[in-house]
Amino acid sequence: MRIFVCASWLMLAVFALTSGCQSSSWAEQARLEQQAVQPTDKTFLAKDLLPLRKHSGHRRIRNGNKPEQKVAESLRSSQEPGQEKNLWIHTVQGVSTTYLQQEEDGSIRVVREESLDDGVRVEYEPALLYLPAQLQPGQEYQAKSNMKVFNLKDGSPRGQGENQVTIKLLGVQPVAGLGTDKELVVVQTSHAIDLNVADAKVQIYTRYRPGQGIKSENLRQQTILLGLLPSVETKSSLVAD
């Protein structure tokens, strides 16, 4: 049994803001997972790791043992009524829509998410931290947001709670044949989610190519529904042609 907002958190693993990234293979992904992450003394900026600009492309997704999906995606800017800042809307066709904003300090946050799979909309207050303005070695970045979950079809409420996020720069991984200037930056994001009907722990490992965006992601989620045994779900995604 899946918690009704499960896919909303999985949307974080489907992010594909990857302007200009070359396609990957699952074999390359497996090699990177086995390759040690090297320490770094560099500081990385959110605007370089995840440049927000108009983009369209595809992403390959593996959800546990289910068959691979290749899905279309797009990123566009939009000014919504009542919003002082532009929102960046990331759409994964037939799966999800995520609304982002970049703050004045340079951090990137999630305002809300919509999951077609689960038929829910999740709103965050304050907006959920996705990337701090800068990531420094040895630092952990923590933030907490209240979350409200609604039925996507009629807007009726389904739950509410908190999402505690912790973000940490793990290091870098060189890409074979591309030189040190093409190394991938590895970031760990952890979510501790406490809803009135369930708890969940989500851990995401993201590999960024600076100046281009996300190269690949791996997600592991453990969900505990009241009175039931924990369930575990894994998901991976890659840049596709």
Keywords:
12-stranded antiparallel barrel; 241 residues; disordered N terminus; 9% helix; two-stranded antiparallel ribbon; 3 helices; mainly beta; YmcC-like fold
Describe the structure.
This protein is mainly beta. The chain has one domain (6-240): YmcC-like fold (Beta Barrel), CATH 2.40.360. Helix content is 9%, strand content 58%. The chain is built from three helices and 14 strands. The chain has helices spanning 6-14, 26-34, 46-49; strands spanning 44-45, 55-63, 69-78, 87-92, 96-102, 108-115, 120-131, 134-135, 140-151, 157-175, 179-195, 198-209, 213-225, 231-240. The strands form two sheets. It has a twelve-stranded antiparallel β-barrel with strand order 2-3-4-5-6-7-9-10-11-12-13-14. The longest helix is centred in the first third of the chain and has 9 residues, at 6-14. The protein is globular, with a radius of gyration of 17 Å. Mean pLDDT is 80; it is low at 1-23.
Secondary-structure blueprint:
Elements: H1 6-14, H2 26-34, E1 44-45, H3 46-49, E2 55-63, E3 69-78, E4 87-92, E5 96-102, E6 108-115, E7 120-131, E8 134-135, E9 140-151, E10 157-175, E11 179-195, E12 198-209, E13 213-225, E14 231-240
Antiparallel strand pairs: 1-8, 2-3, 2-14, 3-4, 4-5, 5-6, 6-7, 7-9, 9-10, 10-11, 11-12, 12-13, 13-14
For the record, give the distance between the C-alpha atoms at the N and C termini, rounded to a whole number.
34 Å
Number of helices: 3
**How many strands, what sense, and barrel or not for the largest sheet?**
12 strands, antiparallel, barrel
CATH architecture tag: Beta Barrel
Given the C-alpha coordinates, what overall shape results? globular
